[in-house]
Each structure stands twice: as structure tokens, then as C-alpha cells.
Amino acid sequence: MTRLIAAFVIAVAGWALWWPVVASSERQATEQWLTAQRAAGWQAEATHIAVTGFPLRYTRTLTAPILADPANGWAWEAERVQLGRPRHAGITPPGLVLTLPRSQTLRSPWQALDLSSREATATLMVSRGGEAIEEATATLTDLVLRSDAGWDAALQSGTLTARASDSGPNAMRITLAARSLATPSRVAEALSGADLAPREIERIEAEADVTFDAPWTIAALETRRPQPTRLILRDAGVLWGALTLRVAGSLEMDASGEVSGDLLVKATNWRELLATSVASGLIPKTIAAGLEQTLDLMSRLAGRRDTLDVPITFANGRTRIGPLPIAPAPVLRLP
Questions:
Q1: How confident is the model over 206-217, as pLDDT tens digits?
Q2: pTM higher than 0.90 for the full model?
Q3: Exposed (0-12), middle (13-18) or buried (19+): which is 86, by Cβ within 10 Å?
């Protein structure tokens, strides 16, 4: 028994001496990463870097971090940010946990956004012995966005999860769940003025299998992001006042990100949904009348005037609702 206690004391003492050594290497690695970003032309700064979490974790806290891409006009800054990881993969699966502060600022070439939230975290779980990302989850609670362009929006809760899928190489199963999304105030004013949908979207849900042109790894987050090549939308739904919308289908993306394929859309109270889309600017007013006539004919043929089942087709660079072309085909590429 005495030998066991002595061995335990020696192990604890050894770990207490070793932990600061690894913590120092974590700090140096963070400083080297910031230096590498500056060498690549970015502004990458933090006034202080601390490592805590003894005995089983290493949590890096960056005070006053700033990341900016001067070439493209993007910048992000906050009071602090924390990046943690477990020490032992045998105890906890290897991964990273990013905890963002209650307030942060994102600037783009078009506007600046002030973001505040009660919780904002992102978790990455990687394969044992490698860098492949097996699961990524982002969680937001009580998010408020305010733009210097004069609008605001809010989200009560939202979770976005991506897990490695066995549906094919480089495939991820992506799910989204959002509750109580207050639409941007400018959109809400347009909807209110037209006596259409309420400002708050009650629920948004989606599940999709997305195939990428390369595997997602830790390194890919800092270099070229894998681009989607195929998307199978199993189900997506929106509940917005009296409006309900469900979408499913399959899409392909070419090398430039242009989308082709088909989606099937089912909507109740579709006339209100169309009016809402026009009032919010999603659908141009110039095509609204022709589109309403086409959808009215399709709903009459289906025998249900308030319920609409309509295909949306993306082909040859155009988007069509039924037979009516309405816009160029979208381009889906990750920045």
C-alpha cells in the first residue's frame, strides 16, 4: 500500500512538472500561428495568450484577438476567445472547443455587424490519430445582430451539426435546428406594412447529406475549404405564422459552384408566402404576377388551392418554378 501511494505521489508530482512544459508549447504554437497568418498578409493579433486547465485540459485564452483580411475587407474582433482541448484522447475523444465571448464584431466590405449572445460555442471532434473531422457542432443562444446599415435581427437558439457520413467518400450529414428567428428589421417593416407574416419565424429545420471535393480536416480550415459537389436535401421545413414550407430534393454543383438539379417544394397558404417573398425582396416584383398565375394554375390542377406542390429546377444556368424561369441558377461555394 505504501508503495502504491508513493507511486501515485511521484506520478502526480511528475505530471505537475510536465504540464507547464506542454502549456508553454501550446502558447508558442498559438503565437506561431498568429505569426504565420501575418506572413500570409492577414492582420492577426492578441494582446495576451494564457494557457489554463490543469490537470487534464489545455485551454488557450486570447485577449483582444483581431483577425482581418485586408485584401478582401473582412475583419473580426472580440474581447477574448477561448480554445480548449482535452489532454488524453483515451479519456475524452480528441477535439477542440471554441468558446466565443458574449459580444464580438464582424466587418465586411458592405457593413459592420455587432453580435451579442448568451452562448456561442463550436466543437470539433477529430479522428483518433489523425486530423479528419468526424463531427462539428455550432451552438448559439440568444443571439442579437445589429448592423451599422440600420437593421437588426435575433435568434433565440440555433444548432448546426455536421457528422461524417457513410453515404460516400468525403460526405457529411448536416442538420440544422433554429427556434424563434426574428427577421431583419427592414424585412419585418415591409411585411408589417403589407399585413403579411409576423416578424418571428417560429422554427427552421433541415437535414442533408453533402458530398465535398476533398475531406474536411483541421488543416482545411486554414487553407482551401472543401467545396460541395452534391447535396441531397432529405427534408427542410419552415414554420412562419400561418405559413408552412417543406423542401426536399437533390442538387449537383460544378467546378464553379453553379447549381443544377431539382427540389420539390410543398407550401400551405402559398399566396401569403409568395407575397411575403416579394415584400422581403426575395422574389422580384417584375415577375410576381406571372409567377402567381402559374402557381395558381398548378394548385388548381392539384385540386387544393391553398396547398402547393411545385418543382424548382436548376438547369443551364437558370432557375425555374414549374415552367416559369425566375432567376439565374444560384452559385454555392464556401469562402
A1: 999 999 998 888
A2: no
A3: middle
